[in-house]
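4.2 Preliminary Data

To establish feasibility before requesting continued support, the project team ran the inverse folding procedure on a target of 292 residues. The structure was first converted into the token representation described in Section 3, and no sequence information of any kind was made available to the design step. The complete token record follows.
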């Protein structure tokens, strides 16, 4: 039997009909006053722009950044027509099912420190999720949020950092966060690592805004600590589920494969793998899978 969920229906529609259909689907959509009332931070997320539908929150915030949007600006949407994932992939989520947002930082850090933002955001998401659910969530190098279900690792979220460097320093950085919050199993995207949602993990729907509020509070605190020079690397390493396990890694930009023991990351977030000859190989970007 072929399932006919909102994704298959959407694929059959185009243009204006598609937008009209999506708007009708959004019975649970967010609204600006409610969002403003849950933001309890001092500067992160204080300047919020909400749209029911956008192309990509990252793309929109990058445009706003080029027009001078302040650090801490937040763009949040209920649906993305062309949400972006890492390595040119798409990020798909049915309307109102997820947290889809981007945050603007203007850190003036060394360019090498850019990955600290991904580390901080991953840690903030883990803390926010474990604060509101009993799920044991972890991070998968370099930017996935995962948990184990029926002995299988499933992806529930991803982070996408897009930065601009000037004179060796990180001038501005847009950090996109996508979290599958309330998705049924028939709404999950097909991905290499099986996808899941927080609601599937805990067996009930969660408040997207409550989660957002908690993520912002934690990320603001952690960013300020990192901005004073304290590396998040050690905490991040402890949250990475691949460390201490055998992995198979495919290096970005080449098809080179490394197999061995994931022993940790360096301070800039590159993964260190000890291969079977004992040599330590360093991977700054790529895809990693666990080997049994
Ligand atoms: C990945 O795991 O590949 C990263 C996914 C990042 C998705 C988020 S959703 C909000 C923001 N806007 C985008 O277009 N992408 C990020």
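Position-by-position output of the design step:
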């Amino acid at each position: 039997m072929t399932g006919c969920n909102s994704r298959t229906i959407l694929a059959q529609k185009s243009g204006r009909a598609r937008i009209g259909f999506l708007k009708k689907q959004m019975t649970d959509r967010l609204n600006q006053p409610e969002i403003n009332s849950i933001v309890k931070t001092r500067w992160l997320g204080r300047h919020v722009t909400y749209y029911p539908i956008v192309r990509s929150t990252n793309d929109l915030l990058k445009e706003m950044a080029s027009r001078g949007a302040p650090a801490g600006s937040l763009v949040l949407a209920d649906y993305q027509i062309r949400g972006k994932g890492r390595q040119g992939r798409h990020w798909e989520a049915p309307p109102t099912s997820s947290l889809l947002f981007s945050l603007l930082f203007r850190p003036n850090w060394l360019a090498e420190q850019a990955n600290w933002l991904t580390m901080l955001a991953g840690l903030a998401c883990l803390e926010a999720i474990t604060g509101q659910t009993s799920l044991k969530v972890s991070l998968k190098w370099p930017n996935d949020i995962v948990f184990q279900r029926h002995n299988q690792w499933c992806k529930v979220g991803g982070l996408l950092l897009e930065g601009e460097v000037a004179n060796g320093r990180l001038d501005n950085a847009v950090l996109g966060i996508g979290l599958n919050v309330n998705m049924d199993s028939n709404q999950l995207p097909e991905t290499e690592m099986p996808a899941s949602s927080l609601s599937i993990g805990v067996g009930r729907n969660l408040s997207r805004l409550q989660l957002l509020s908690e993520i912002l509070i934690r990320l603001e605190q952690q960013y300020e600590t990192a901005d004073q020079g304290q590396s998040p690397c050690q905490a991040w390493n402890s949250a990475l589920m691949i460390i201490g396990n055998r992995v198979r890694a495919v290096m970005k930009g080449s098809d080179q494969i490394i197999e061995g023991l994931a022993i940790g990351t360096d301070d800039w977030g590159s993964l260190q793998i000890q291969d079977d000859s004992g040599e330590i190989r360093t991977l700054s970007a790529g895809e990693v899978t666990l080997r049994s």
